[in-house]
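Checklist before submission:
- one chain only
- standard amino acids only
- sequence pasted in full

Submission:
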Amino acid sequence: MKNEHKVILNILGQYLEKYPELRFGQALFNLDIMQWEEPFNPHGENVMRDIHADSDVKIINRIKSTEDEK
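Returned file contents:
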């Protein structure tokens, strides 16, 4: 396991400890690991953005920026 994996899992684990009532998928959304393709498109379908190409570091940075906003 890479160090970045450990960082992501640690953040996710801490978040689920803090909010145990959440489902796993909700935590992924709340931490911006998973995102809607166009979250503010009222006329389009709700399509998940493909995060396949996102690097682990990019995901960590997105999580941290989400945490900073809360």
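Reviewer check: The CA atoms of residues 23 and 39 lie 20 Å apart.
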